[in-house]
Amino acid sequence: MITEDMVRAALKNVVDPEIGLDVVNLGLVYRIDILDGGKTVDIDMTLTTPACPAGPQILEQARREVMALSEVYKELENVKINLVWTPFWNPSMMSEEAREELGFF
Q: CA neighbours within 13 Å on the CB side: how many for 72?
């Protein structure tokens, strides 16, 4: 069955084109739930800013990357990406690796 770790690994393929880092290390993924015996993945995530021009592209790529897991995990039928603004994203949410790469210490 699909797991949260597998979904996180898939989401690491989604890169914010303006920043050049993946959404997981940027701290944009807030919640991942595997529902209905693996048929549905429900994700809460945010963007670095509500005015992010790449927002629709990032959200759609996230949906596609997770849905690609259905090629192996046949039970996966639906991926729901919820764009949330609470809590509002800030640089302290980034992984240590991302902060180092961007020069945040």
A: 10
Closest CA to 29 of 10, 44, 13: 44
Are the beta carbons of 8 and 24 closer than 8 angstroms? Answer: yes
pTM of the predicted model as reported, rounded to 2 decimal places: 0.94
Tens digits of per-residue pLDDT, 60-91?
Answer: 999 999 999 999 999 999 999 999 999 999 99
**Residue 77: both structure tokens together:** 């039928």
Q: Where are the beta strands (DSSP E) in the chain?
A: 29-35, 40-45, 78-83
Give residue 2's identity as a one-letter amino acid code. Answer: I
